């Protein structure tokens, strides 16, 4: 019995590790495992197996066997204890790198995760502590296998210890150092326990991830991003995930490998992941769009690619491309505004420029990288590029760029499409089809950029475009249905391709032939242009014969309308310019047609009457004979001269020659035209123009002889100009200028243009100038010589007390009139001619050559020298002085237009240098300034500055001394245009000079005073401009007077301010304030963006952005503060009706902006409320003290004037003020409402300086009452005003404490309110007093409110 008992209590035999594995295979639980004394032995087997040469499989087999045996009875205390010890030892061995990292270890860890619910939580905490302490050792992704037990452990711990314990562990994990393998593992694991993350912890986790992604291998990034997108789709900090992804790949990604093909392939794969994620969860697409919409800094090449990729999802197609287009156009507009805004700091202007450059580079990079795994965005790039081209229809978008700094919308779009066309074969068909579709469907003004695109594609990729000739031929089929300008530009764009493709050339000729037989004039006009484009293309391709081949079509043009003939004559001249050898055939072609209107043997050689015809009861020009003669004379001038039988005096002088080869063309045609021009010259010199035109009018058989006379006069004027340009004949200049002056010839043209029907385009359109730049310069030199000669003769005659020679001299003033009138037309038309037009070089040449002689003419006219014989009659002398003054004004206008052109074209800057070199004006006060400015390094700035100091300022002083006020305005305009392009130092010096002029000179001319004041304020850099405006406003207050002060005749500080000029100066300053208020509207929108970025804690550079926003905000507040000071002076003045009404509208807009600024200071829900800055508090205080209270008094005074008005002339004024006064009161109340709200949330009383007892009463007065009282003077008026006052005081007691309810609704200015007011006036006796008050819209404050 004792032996049996001993056998019962004997411990089970010890098992080996091999036996344990066998038991696990047989699924049998041995008693040895249930003994706690066996734990040490069992764990020693695990440690021993780590010493084997290949420990992976032995450790895995043994550990899995133990876990399978434990799982047979996991709740047994001994087995549960064994499980805890086994997990702890395995974890320690794993973290000490004694267990290999492979699939066996991963399998073991996963099995551990299934039995963790049998491990006590305290033991799990110990294991967690061990893992967290060794996180820095987990380098590779395989090292992190042990972290797979974290999700199950967290679930057990939260049930036992709560969420805080898990949060504490997560915080320690986030704060530790992460290797790239640990980062990838954490991202893949966080999905399992993402419900343990709140918003703040999730944001910290993502910051850790995106900061460490720079160290992650490139091949691991796509999967990592995919895991993040999966997290975001499950609601894990969507905004931060999207923001982090786009900013990482947009800025930090790639490092030294940035731009490599591998990096681009990785980005392409990530784009596909984003696209797929957006399809699965559309809210991610909204986050992408919202991110770009909120902050422009999020725009980079990868963000653009993401938006283009998201646009492939149907529901985001419009919104994604729309926000991208909006952001880009906004960047261009901001740059344009900042560039022209004076009060913005230079740093902010540079930032706006950099934003545009950044956006352009990002777009081009996104397009250039579109062939690296992201071909799916190519269709959206095409779509977006065409949308940008279509946006050029808006006039405010077209000129938003500086060609030296940025590309611009059109060039950017064309470059994008050109890149796609070159790289992606799949995009070529789409680009051609889209271009074709838009040309046929869009408005003509939208088609021009599309045609420019086709032109660029043809020029840069002609052989690729040859593959699409069939589509281009389909487009040409619609030639006759296109707008004329579109059809012309289309053929011109295809010219380089026509040179390479005979098939396309023949098809174009066929289309043009059909178009020439259409009824529509515009179609035939386009066909004529197309003909010459084809001929010129053949000439450039060194192929001959097309001119003769198409001569039949050209012959048909000779029987078309005058406009078509003019186009043909210009085309023939371009042909000769391109190929001088074609001059002979062209003259042969024109000679028979010319002989129809020129008779050599007749007394009247020019049959101008045949150039007109009667059409539908009106007389129109059928043959533009002047254009024909201009074409012929230009061709003759281009021909080389070698004939000895024709003397030089009878030959047209040679302007230039394009070829010095053998004599060209037909001698017969050339000699015939040369002789004809000589005879025409002689004919025009001997006839009397008035008699000639009268004879044409007398011979007219039409029903409108006067109209025919006007048409013939216009043709005759053109012929005279052609002859003058060819022979430079002084007598013809005098005759033509006399006709212009006396109204016989040229003066009839404008009248005729206004009376003839619109169908006569010849009369309504501005004609191409016939006089060339060289001819005008020669005429100016001739006028100068003649004027100097006549001046010397006049002086000699006066010294000898004798008269001039009886021979009638050529009057220089008449030549001046001709030359200056044509010079002005010549200069203004310069910019209307395309740069690539060959006629521009022929007609305009070096237009800067007109500057020096023009300036000499100005000096001569200004000098006051006698330019002719002494006039005996005072009336003739007065008329001559007025003519001189008029010529001076005309010359200055020409100079202004010429200077404007030179400032717009950098290659014409030499003009100002030439003008400075010929200036003879002396201004001793500016000698030192001239020496200082001569040392400026920048050539462009130095030239402009010297022109101002050497020419404009002395000229300004002399004209001011002579009281030439109209001319003074022109000089002021030139000073303003040039001064605004100068740096701050030079601009401020000119502003100080202008202020001195305003203070020291009494100017009674209102327009001149206004221009000088505008010059003084505009050339003063902010904040000096508003300081000057405030000083002038104070002086205006003294001159105009107020309720408490009388008026003064002249200001003591500013002599330019007097009773004669006060009104115009007030309008000038009001215009300045209006411009500033418009600027504030843009600035407040930018401030709103800064506020949103600050409150939403947007991604990068927060501190830098905060500083920029604060600086911008303070600049805006200081600008508004200066504006308040100026407005406070105006509301105290006795202003006239239109100026008072304008002031009300300005102040209403200003208070609206103040309300917006106050609203932006109120933090959004969930954001921290900041204390308003000191600059804002100062602005509020100043507005309450100096503007609001006086403004109520100003409105009250206007109301009293309305009530006392009793004439019909004030009815319209009352109607207008009935709208603007309620709006003003509403805006003030709205502004103070936001101030009250801001005071409550910021605990600062912003209304402590507001006068709360201010009366805010106003009354809508019905203008019909005023009219009815005027119409019925005997009718006894109702005592309505007294009743209203009594009832108003009776009701005031009911409104105590309800100040906020006294805000007038904008509906009070509606027509309904006016009707109610009128009905009240008619039936006032039938209404109770309270209702009458309501209908009169009287708003009263409580008397006890103070």
Automatic annotation (TrEMBL):
Query: Which Pfam families does the UniProt entry name for this protein?
Result: FANCI_HD1, FANCI_HD2, FANCI_S1, FANCI_S2, FANCI_S4
Q: Which residues form the FANCI solenoid domain?
A: 114-279, 377-531, 1028-1262
* Highest taxon of the lineage: Eukaryota
Composition bias (Low complexity) maps to 1300-1316
Region: Disordered; residue ranges are: 1269-1346
InterPro entries associated with the record = FANCI (IPR026171), FANCI_HD1 (IPR029310), FANCI_HD2 (IPR029312), FANCI_S1 (IPR029308), FANCI_S2 (IPR029315), FANCI_S4 (IPR029314)
Output the PANTHER family linked to this UniProt entry: BC025462 PROTEIN (PTHR21818), FANCONI ANEMIA GROUP I PROTEIN (PTHR21818:SF0)
Name the chain's protein.
Answer: Fanconi anemia group I protein
Q: Where's the FANCI helical domain?
A: 283-361, 539-726
């Amino acid at each position: 019995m004792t032996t049996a008992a001993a056998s019962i209590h004997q411990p089970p035999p010890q098992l080996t590790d091999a036996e344990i594995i066998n038991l696990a295979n047989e699924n049998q639980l041995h008693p040895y495992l249930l003994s706690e004394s066996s734990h040490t032995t069992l764990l020693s087997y695990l440690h021993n197996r780590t010493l084997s040469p290949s420990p992976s499989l032995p450790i895995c087999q043994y550990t899995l066997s133990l876990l399978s045996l434990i799982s047979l009875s996991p709740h047994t205390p001994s087995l549960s204890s064994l499980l805890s010890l086994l997990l702890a030892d395995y974890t320690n061995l794993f973290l000490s790198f004694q267990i290999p990292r492979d699939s066996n270890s991963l399998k073991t860890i996963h099995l551990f995760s299934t039995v963790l619910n049998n491990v006590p939580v305290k033991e799990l905490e110990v294991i967690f502590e061990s893992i967290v302490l060794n996180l820095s050792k987990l380098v590779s992704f395989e090292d992190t296998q042990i972290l797979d037990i974290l999700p199950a452990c967290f679930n057990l711990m939260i049930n036992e210890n709560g969420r805080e314990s898990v949060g504490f562990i997560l915080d320690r994990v986030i704060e530790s150092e992460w290797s790239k393998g640990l980062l990838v593992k954490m991202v893949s694991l966080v999905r399992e326990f993402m419900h343990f993350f709140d918003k703040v912890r999730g944001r910290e986790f993502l910051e850790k991830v995106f900061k460490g992604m720079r160290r992650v291998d490139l091949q691991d990034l796509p999967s990592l991003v995919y895991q993040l997108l999966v997290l975001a789709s499950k609601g894990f900090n969507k905004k931060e995930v999207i923001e982090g992804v786009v900013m990482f790949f947009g800025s930090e990604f790639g490092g030294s490998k940035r731009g490599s093909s591998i990096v681009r392939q990785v980005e392409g794969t990530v784009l596909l992941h984003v696209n797929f994620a957006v399809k699965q969860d559309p809210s991610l697409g909204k986050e992408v769009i919202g991110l770009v919409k909120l902050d422009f800094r999020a725009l980079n090449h990868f963000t653009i690619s993401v938006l283009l990729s998201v646009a492939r999802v149907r529901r985001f197609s419009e919104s994604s491309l729309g926000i991208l287009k909006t952001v880009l156009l906004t960047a261009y507009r901001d740059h344009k505004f900042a560039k022209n805004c004076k009060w913005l700091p230079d740093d902010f202007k540079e930032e706006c420029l950099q934003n545009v450059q950044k956006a352009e580079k990002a777009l081009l990079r996104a397009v250039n990288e579109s062939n690296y795994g992201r071909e799916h965005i190519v269709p959206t790039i095409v779509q977006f590029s065409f949308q940008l081209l279509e946006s050029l229809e808006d006039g405010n978008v077209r000129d938003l760029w500086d060609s030296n700094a940025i590309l611009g919308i059109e060039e950017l779009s064309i470059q994008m499409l050109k890149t796609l066309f070159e790289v992606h074969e799949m995009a070529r068909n789409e680009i051609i089809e889209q271009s074709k579709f838009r040309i046929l469907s869009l408005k003509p003004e939208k088609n021009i950029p599309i045609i420019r695109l086709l032109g660029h594609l043809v020029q840069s990729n002609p052989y690729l475009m040859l593959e699409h000739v069939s589509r281009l031929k389909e487009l040409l089929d619609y030639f006759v249905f296109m707008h004329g300008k579109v059809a012309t530009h289309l053929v011109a764009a295809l010219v380089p391709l026509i040179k390479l493709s005979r098939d396309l050339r023949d098809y174009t000729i066929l289309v043009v032939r059909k178009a020439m037989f259409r009824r529509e004039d515009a179609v035939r006009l386009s066909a004529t242009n197309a003909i010459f484009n084809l001929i010129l293309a053949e000439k450039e391709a060194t192929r001959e014969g097309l001119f003769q081949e198409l001569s039949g079509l050209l012959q048909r043009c000779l029987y078309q309308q005058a406009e078509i003939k003019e186009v043909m004559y210009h085309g023939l001249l371009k042909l000769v310019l391109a190929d001088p050898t074609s001059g002979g055939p062209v003259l042969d072609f024109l000679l028979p047609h010319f002989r129809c209107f020129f008779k050599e043997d007749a007394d009247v050689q020019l049959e101008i009457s045949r150039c007109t015809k009667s059409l539908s009861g009106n007389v129109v020009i059928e043959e533009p004979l002047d254009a024909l003669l201009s074409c012929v004379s230009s061709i003759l001038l281009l021909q080389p001269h070698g004939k000895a039988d024709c003397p030089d005096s009878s030959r047209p002088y040679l302007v230039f020659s394009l070829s010095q080869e053998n004599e060209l063309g037909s001698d017969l045609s050339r000699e015939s035209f040369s002789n004809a021009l000589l005879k025409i010259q002689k004919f025009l010199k001997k006839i009397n123009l008035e008699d000639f035109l009268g004879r044409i009018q007398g011979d007219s058989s039409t029903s409108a002889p006067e109209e025919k006379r006007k048409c013939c006069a216009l043709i005759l004027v053109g012929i005279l100009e052609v002859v003058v340009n060819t022979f430079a004949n002084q007598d013809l200049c005098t005759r033509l200028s006399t006709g212009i002056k006396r109204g016989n010839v040229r003066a009839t043209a404008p009248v005729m243009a206004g009376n003839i029907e619109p169908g006569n385009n010849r009369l309504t359109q501005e004609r191409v100038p016939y006089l060339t730049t060289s001819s005008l310069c020669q005429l100016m030199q001739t006028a100068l010589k003649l004027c100097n000669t006549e001046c010397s003769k006049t002086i000699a005659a006066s010294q000898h007390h004798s008269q001039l020679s009886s021979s009638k001299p050529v009057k220089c003033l008449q030549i001046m009139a001709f030359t200056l009138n044509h010079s002005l037309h010549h200069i203004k038309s310069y910019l209307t001619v395309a740069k690539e037009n060959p006629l521009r070089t022929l007609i305009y040449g070096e237009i800067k050559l007109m500057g020096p002689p023009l300036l000499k003419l100005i000096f001569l006219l200004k000098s006051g020298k006698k330019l002719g014989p002494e006039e005996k009659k005072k009336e003739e002398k007065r008329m001559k002085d007025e003519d001189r003054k008029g010529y001076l004004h005309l010359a200055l206008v020409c100079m202004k237009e010429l200077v404007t052109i030179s400032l717009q074209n950098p290659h014409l800057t030499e003009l100002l240098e030439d003008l400075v070199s010929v200036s003879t004006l002396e201004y001793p006060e500016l000698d030192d300034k001239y020496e200082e400015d001569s040392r400026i390094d920048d050539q462009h700035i130095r030239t402009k500055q010297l022109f101002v100091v050497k020419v404009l300022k002395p000229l300004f002083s002399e004209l001011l001394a002579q009281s030439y006020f109209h001319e003074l305005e022109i000089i002021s305009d030139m000073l303003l245009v040039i001064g605004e392009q100068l740096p701050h130092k030079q601009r401020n010096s000119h502003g100080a000079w202008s202020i001195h002029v305003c203070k020291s000179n009494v100017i009674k001319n209102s327009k001149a005073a206004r221009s000088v004041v505008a010059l003084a304020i505009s050339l003063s850099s902010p904040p000096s401009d508003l300081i000057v405006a405030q000083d002038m406003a104070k002086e205006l207050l003294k001159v105009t007077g107020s309720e408490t002060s009388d008026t003064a005749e002249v200001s003591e500080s500013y002599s330019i301010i007097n009773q004669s000029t006060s009104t115009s100066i007030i309008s000038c300053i009001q215009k300045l304030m209006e411009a500033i208020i418009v600027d504030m509207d843009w600035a407040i929108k930018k401030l709103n963006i800064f506020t949103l970025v600050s409150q939403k804690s947007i991604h990068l550079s927060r501190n830098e952005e905060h500083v920029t926003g604060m600086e911008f905000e303070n600049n805006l507040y200081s600008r508004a503060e200066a504006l308040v000071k100026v407005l406070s002076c105006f509301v105290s003045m006795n202003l006239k009706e239109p100026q008072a009404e304008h002031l009300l509208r300005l102040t209403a807009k200003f208070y609206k902006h103040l309300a917006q600024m106050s609203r932006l200071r109120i933090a959004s829900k969930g954001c921290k409320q900041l204390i308003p800055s000191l600059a804002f508090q100062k602005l509020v205080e100043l507005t309450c003290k100096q503007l609001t209270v006086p403004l109520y008094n100003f409105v009250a005074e206007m109301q009293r004037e309305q009530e006392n008005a009793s004439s019909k002339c004030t009815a319209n004024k009352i109607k207008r003020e009935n709208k603007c006064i309620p709006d003003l009161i509403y805006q003030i109340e709205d502004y103070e409402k936001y101030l009250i709200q801001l005071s409550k949330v910021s605990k600062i009383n912003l209304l402590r300086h507001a006068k709360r007892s201010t009366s805010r009463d106003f009354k809508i007065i019905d203008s019909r009452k005023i009219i009815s009282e005027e119409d019925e003077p005997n009718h006894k008026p109702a005592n309505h005003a007294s009743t209203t006052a009594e009832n108003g005081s009776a009701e005031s007691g009911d409104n105590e404490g309800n100040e906020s309810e006294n805000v007038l609704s904008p509906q009070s200015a509606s027509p309904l309110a006016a009707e109610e007011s009128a009905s009240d006036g008619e039936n006032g006796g039938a209404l109770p007093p309270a209702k009458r008050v309501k209908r009169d819209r009287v708003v009263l404050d409580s008397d006890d409110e103070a």
